[in-house]
């Protein structure tokens, strides 16, 4: 587990610095391990007001952008575990209905990112994208975090594009190659 976290930190270092410099907002990288999402690194934005998540914090999977994007792209058993635990309300905006959560996760899969305005903390929004490892599994997430004034419920296109570019760069650094993964899965299907 520790080696995986170090690898993710190394793979993400340049990409998150570039993302912060380009967008100006706080950037958070988290690692998915077992059934939890843990913050590995927070790089504070350029604002005088620091908004971030403390390193080592465990994120709520159904109530944060990072958690929801991890749920969207992970094995379905993780979502089933979260639903069995119950969807705790953190604010009036937290999704606590399983059907609504599943709809959000489907939206995340379709667009490659998700937001969570006011869902964990009132006045704060994040937009997050998945990070994939060499096997095509979710290794973690990358997110930009800021006030709802700076990251709207529908983020600016520049924020989305920069985030997706950073998530892909980190994934590549971890050995992710979608073409190779798709080819391997086709071969496995043909063999069975």
Walk me through the structure.
The protein has 192 residues and is α+β, with helices and mostly antiparallel strands. It has one domain (2-191): GAF domain (Beta-Lactamase, 2-Layer Sandwich), CATH 3.30.450. The protein is built from six helices and six strands. The protein has a six-stranded antiparallel sheet, with helices on both faces. It is globular, with a radius of gyration of 16 Å.
- What global shape is seen? globular
Summarize the amount of helix as a percent range.
40-55%
Enumerate the strands of the largest sheet in spatial order, edge to edge or round the barrel: 3-2-1-6-5-4
Uncertain ranges? none
Give a short account of the largest sheet.
Answer: 6 strands, antiparallel
Please give the CATH architecture.
Answer: 2-Layer Sandwich
Kindly provide the name of the CATH class.
Alpha Beta
Number of strands: 6
Strand content: 15-25%
Task: Report the CATH superfamily.
Answer: GAF domain
CATH fold naming: Beta-Lactamase
Assembly annotation:
single chain
Q: Radius of gyration from the CA trace?
A: 16 Å
Question: Any idea how many domains?
Answer: 1
List the helices and strands and how they pair.
Blueprint: H1 2-23, E1 26-33, E2 36-43, E3 58-59, H2 65-73, H3 76-85, H4 98-111, E4 114-115, E5 124-132, E6 138-147, H5 157-173, H6 178-191
Helix pairs in contact: 1-5, 2-4
